[in-house]
């Protein structure tokens, strides 16, 4: 139980991450470079950017496992394009040309719309939509969202634009937002199969396979297609599997457990989780808007279903999954594991999945009550020998690490988090998470909040360990 797994969040199905010097991140496939440029693949083909604006590249963020949320964020079902009329294509090529967005043109049509020109609203909406498409193709989801949201302000009842905005939220794993816009689209265009296809993905991402099935069945009756059929079959399999589980819920949790776990234990788990929920939300000054799914397993079904390595005690891939074989009532170990995994859910939702693994694991361990203690001396030795793992290298998935390296990564992540909390309190952690949620890179967030870069932080952490745990 020392090592608990955080399997999927930091690793969507895309392979690589390009971190720019301004802190922006581009998630893309097949990143390569030569002397002056960095190349990457997008849905719009191969693109390149000058190497001078790139800070570093993180390769190989391959998921160890697919969670519904990760699958929904990388959905094979895409929204339909705007109808290609002559007007629309003219606006499109005026808004984006020569490999960049023409902001002057977009500002001009937006001004015309604000000036009350009746035809100008649609034009401004399409221009912002064209910019959003360009940004999406370049992997810049945040700017794409800003432009698509602006497009909607000019054409609030345009189903295609509402669907495209919902799609961007799906890619951000912000499922509730996606559903809000899809419901808006349904009110305008109740028999549009594409809306139901996308909404199925939103529910699937929220771990609600039964509602996903309802949406996809409706899509199939409106217009059968192979993509939806495949998605529907998958959701039906999940639904059947879960029907053998019993359910229970509390204010913030939906709990499932199979028959072998005692109902009394299930109630105690919910009670304990609600207590942890109150404490973590006051400590991080945040309450997750989405209900949190929890599944209790007997040991064998945990291994069958999660296919996690043997050393994983419990894990959180969007739902908290906890093996409870042999337990009939709550004990301190289980309570600790629940608090650890619940912290992951808070951080995941608070940062929209943008927290690096070392912060996730550092804060989760701190919250469950772990401190550096007997690890401190070894960590300082490793640091003094110049062998400390760069925190930047611990941002991505840890699933490829060996048992020993993983144990060290957990201890080092905890030590750095502990130093931050002991120095200035949990408020700094909260502020770092807020910066990450807004799209800052981790190091940029540290600089803004702590005025430290990674190497400053590691040095201060090592000094803190010496001072507090030194003989
Ligand atoms: Zn963890």
Tell me the fraction of residues in β-strands, as a range. Answer: 5-15%
**Are there runs of 5+ residues with pLDDT below 50, and where?**
1-14, 61-66
Radius of gyration: 24 Å
Proportion in helices: 55-70%
Strand order within the widest beta sheet: 4-3-2-1-5
Class by helix and strand content? alpha+beta
Morphology: globular
Characterize the largest beta sheet: strand count, sense, and whether it forms a barrel.
Answer: 5 strands, antiparallel
Give the count of helical stretches: 19
Secondary-structure blueprint:
Layout: E1 16-20, E2 25-33, E3 37-42, E4 45-50, E5 54-58, H1 68-73, H2 86-95, E6 96-97, E7 100-101, H3 103-114, H4 120-137, H5 141-154, H6 159-171, H7 175-188, H8 193-205, H9 209-222, H10 226-243, E8 246-249, E9 253-257, H11 263-284, E10 292-297, H12 299-306, E11 315-316, E12 319-323, H13 332-350, H14 357-368, H15 376-384, H16 403-424, H17 426-437, H18 442-450, H19 454-469
Parallel strand pairs: 9-10, 10-12
Antiparallel strand pairs: 1-2, 1-5, 2-3, 3-4, 6-7, 8-9, 11-12
This protein binds zinc ion (ZN).
Provide structural commentary.
This protein is of the alpha+beta class. Helices cover 55% and strands 12% of the residues. The protein contains 19 helices and 12 strands. It has helices spanning 68-73, 86-95, 103-114, 120-137, 141-154, 159-171, 175-188, 193-205, 209-222, 226-243, 263-284, 299-306, 332-350, 357-368, 376-384, 403-424, 426-437, 442-450, 454-469; strands at residues 16-20, 25-33, 37-42, 45-50, 54-58, 96-97, 100-101, 246-249, 253-257, 292-297, 315-316, 319-323. It has a 5-stranded antiparallel beta sheet, with no helix packed on it. It has a 5-stranded mixed beta sheet with strand order 8-9-10-12-11. It has a two-stranded antiparallel sheet with strand order 6-7. A hairpin with a 2-residue loop joins strand 11 and strand 12 (319-323). The longest helix is centred in the middle third of the chain and has 22 residues, at 263-284. The model is unreliable at 1-14 and 61-66 (pLDDT under 50). Zinc ion is lined by residues 4, 6, 340, 344, 361, 364.
């Amino acid at each position: 139980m020392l090592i608990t797994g955080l399997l999927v969040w930091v690793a969507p199905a895309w392979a690589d991450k390009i971190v720019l010097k301004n802190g922006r991140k581009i998630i893309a496939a097949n990143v390569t470079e030569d002397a002056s440029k960095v190349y990457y693949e997008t849905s719009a083909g191969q693109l390149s950017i000058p190497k001078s604006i790139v800070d570093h590249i993180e390769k190989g963020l391959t998921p160890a496992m697919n969670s519904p949320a990760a699958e929904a964020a990388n959905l094979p079902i895409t929204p339909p394009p705007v109808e290609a009329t002559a007007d629309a294509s003219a606006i499109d090529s005026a808004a984006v040309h020569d490999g960049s967005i023409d902001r002057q043109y977009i500002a001009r049509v937006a001004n015309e719309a604000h000036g009350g020109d009746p035809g100008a609203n649609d034009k401004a909406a399409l221009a912002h939509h064209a910019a959003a498409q360009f940004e999406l193709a370049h992997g810049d989801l945040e700017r794409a969202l800003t432009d698509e949201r602006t497009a909607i302000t000019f054409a609030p009842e345009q189903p295609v634009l509402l669907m495209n905005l919902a799609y961007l939220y799906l890619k951000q794993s912000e499922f509730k937002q996606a559903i809000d816009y899809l419901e808006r689209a349904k009110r305008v265009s109740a028999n549009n199969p594409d809306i139901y296809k996308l909404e199925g993905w939103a529910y699937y991402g929220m771990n609600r396979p039964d509602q996903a099935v309802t949406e996809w069945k409706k899509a199939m009756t409106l217009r059968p297609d192979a993509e939806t059929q495949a998605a529907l079959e998958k959701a039906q399999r999940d639904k059947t599997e879960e029907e053998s589980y019993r359910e229970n819920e509390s204010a913030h949790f939906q709990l499932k457990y199979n028959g072998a776990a005692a109902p009394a234990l299930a109630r105690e788990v919910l009670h304990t989780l609600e207590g942890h929920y109150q404490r973590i939300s006051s400590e991080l000054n945040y309450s997750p808007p989405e209900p949190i799914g929890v599944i209790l397993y007997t040991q064998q079904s945990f291994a069958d279903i999660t296919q996690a390595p043997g050393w994983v005690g419990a894990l959180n891939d969007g739902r908290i999954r906890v093996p409870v074989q042999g337990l009939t009532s709550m004990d301190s170990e289980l309570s600790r594991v629940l608090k650890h995994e619940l912290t992951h859910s808070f951080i995941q939702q608070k940062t929209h999945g943008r927290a690096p693994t070392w912060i996730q694991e550092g804060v989760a361990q701190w919250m469950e009550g772990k401190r550096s203690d007997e690890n401190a001396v070894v960590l300082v030795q490793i640091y003094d020998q110049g062998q400390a793992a760069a925190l930047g290298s611990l941002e991505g998935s840890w699933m490829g690490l060996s048992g020993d390296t993983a144990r060290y990564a957990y201890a080092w992540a905890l030590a750095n988090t502990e130093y931050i909390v002991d120095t200035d309190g949990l408020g700094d952690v909260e502020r770092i998470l807020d910066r990450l949620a807004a799209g800052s890179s981790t190091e940029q967030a540290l600089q803004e909040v702590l005025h430290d870069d990674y190497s400053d932080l590691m040095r201060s952490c090592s000094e803190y360990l010496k001072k507090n745990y030194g003989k």
